[in-house]
TrEMBL record:
<keyword id="KW-0732">Signal</keyword>
<feature type="signal peptide">
    <location>
        <begin position="1"/>
        <end position="29"/>
    </location>
</feature>
<protein>
    <recommendedName>
        <fullName>Carboxypeptidase regulatory-like domain-containing protein</fullName>
    </recommendedName>
</protein>
<dbReference type="InterPro" id="IPR008964">
    <property type="entry name" value="Invasin/intimin_cell_adhesion"/>
</dbReference>
Length: 474
């Protein structure tokens, strides 16, 4: 890349960079950057300068530790930060993935695993303006053991194209044997490469400009990519997917992902390969305001509505255990929410609201990893990246839901997780309690003396968010 291109990039990004300090409102104490880290507590996990166009990437190693890679730098991104987070949500370590700052840096790095269980960051960049292997603008890698404690910069790249540094949104995954696959869009072209060899990149051109925000996932032996298309017609605008490995397939537009030739761009396309099979995309349905998130299994015509997701402005999706999927999103209030599907990838559990880090009022990026029983959520709020965890939500129903005062009434409660019965849940109404059996049900008998009005019932179980139900005595 010519020197003037690097300089211009730096100037453009400088206007978007904010300081890392969290400015508390006047008269209030600034919260600590690190707190407990588990559900209900936001923890700032990044250090160094941060810009609103910076995005994070997550990968969990076999020991259950979550690793996050993110761009950092003052004036413009020039380094990759790394943080590791324990299964309970505590920050374990923070370090840099590159030995020194670079002249130009991909704002959308990707993090994947290696064949030996380690870590590989994939990013476009230019180390310096001096000639050299790492100054060609290719899609480079930095690697680390599973601990993430020490990083190396091997003389290899996942691609040979020298314009990868200008990526409009990098995506990466691995083949079953750990071979990396990276893809990136630039203008109307999407380029990808399999492995770190010197063979030519593969690419295809779209009949419009531009393509953005590529995601790459592997379902069995097939590699799929998704992107946002900014075309000027209904056929070229919206969310698109295509199989690219082992052979390239047809381009498929996600149903309802645009209204005519209009759709919002919400960041990296939310694409996930479900455990048990199937590729799923989550995206906004509606324009100019998002009416809801649609969840679509690639290759089908059905789009499932995600409840309570109106006004979404950023979203992410992740595979979960036992075939479930996790979805996380922000809206324009803003607030962060999550939901987990049933075991077949459809059916919705109860959504969970996660609040926001203290003193913040904007969200610029959302990422989630749901490969354990919890959902680990990372957001970019302008001053850096923050993390919290979410429990899956319980759903509580009761029959009958209302009865007349002065009558003794037995109410049967059912506790479910996206339609599955939940045993061992405690249901509590005032001083009365019951515990669900294998069918997810239990009963409480309310006496004649129960007062008129509302009766609040709460269901709880370890590793779940609580559910609340209101009964009525007339």
């Amino acid at each position: 890349m010519p020197l003037h291109r690097i300089a211009l990039c730096g100037v453009a990004l400088a206007s978007l960079v904010l300081t890392t300090g969290l400015n508390a409102p006047a008269g209030s104490a600034a919260p600590p950057d690190r707190e407990r880290g588990g559900p209900g507590s936001w923890t700032k996990i990044s250090v160094g300068g941060s810009g609103i166009t910076y995005t994070s990437s997550l990968h969990r190693t076999a020991d259950g530790v979550l690793h996050v890679i993110y761009p950092k730098g003052s004036g413009a991104a020039d380094q990759l930060g790394h943080v590791s987070i324990s299964p309970s949500g505590a920050v374990i370590q923070q370090n840099d993935a590159l030995p020194s700052a670079w002249a130009a840096m991909d704002l959308t790095p990707a993090l994947v695993g290696t064949a030996d269980g380690g870590l590989r960051a994939v990013f476009g960049g230019i180390q310096s303006v001096d000639p050299g292997f790492w100054s060609d603008g290719r899609m480079y890698t930095a690697t680390a053991p599973a601990s993430g404690a020490s990083w190396t910069l091997p003389a290899e790249a996942v691609g040979t194209t020298t314009s990868a540094v200008d990526s409009y949104g990098t995506g990466a995954t691995t083949l079953a044997d750990g071979t990396p696959v990276a893809a990136w869009p630039l203008n109307s072209r999407i380029t990808w490469h399999v492995g770190t060899g010197s063979d030519p990149d593969q690419s295809f051109d779209l009949p419009y400009c531009c393509a953005y925000d590529v995601s790459v996932v592997r379902d069995g032996d097939d590699v799929w990519l998704g992107w946002y298309g900014n075309g000027s017609t209904a056929a070229t605008n919206g969310i698109f997917v295509r199989k690219i490995y082992p052979t390239a397939g047809a381009i498929i537009k996600a149903p309802q992902s645009s209204v005519g030739a209009n759709s919002p761009r919400l960041g990296q396309v939310a694409l996930a390969a479900r455990t048990g099979g199937g590729v799923y995309a989550a995206y906004c349905v509606g324009y100019p305001t998002c009416d809801h998130i649609g969840l679509w299994k690639v290759g089908t015509s059905k789009v499932t509505k995600v409840p309570h997701s109106k006004y979404v402005d950023h979203l992410a999706i992740s595979p979960g255990p036992s075939g479930r999927l996790w979805i996380a999103w922000s809206d324009n209030i803003p607030k962060i929410q999550t939901i987990r599907t049933g075991r077949n990838g459809s059916g919705m559990g109860a959504g969970q609201r996660l609040g926001m880090p203290h003193g913040t009022d904007s969200v610029y990026d959302v990422a989630i990893d749901g490969t354990t029983g919890r959902g680990d959520v990372v957001i970019q709020v302008g001053n850096g990246f923050w993390h919290t965890q979410a429990f899956a939500g319980l759903t509580l129903t009761g029959k009958p839901g209302a009865w007349k005062h002065g009558k003794k009434r037995k109410v049967t409660f059912a506790v479910t997780d996206a339609g599955d019965a939940v045993a061992g849940a405690k249901v509590k109404a005032g001083s009365r309690t019951c515990t669900t059996k294998g069918n997810g049900k239990c009963t409480i008998t309310f006496p004649k003396a129960t007062k008129k009005g509302k009766v609040t019932v709460r269901a709880t179980r370890n590793a779940y968010g609580p559910a609340v139900l209101v009964l009525k005595v007339k």
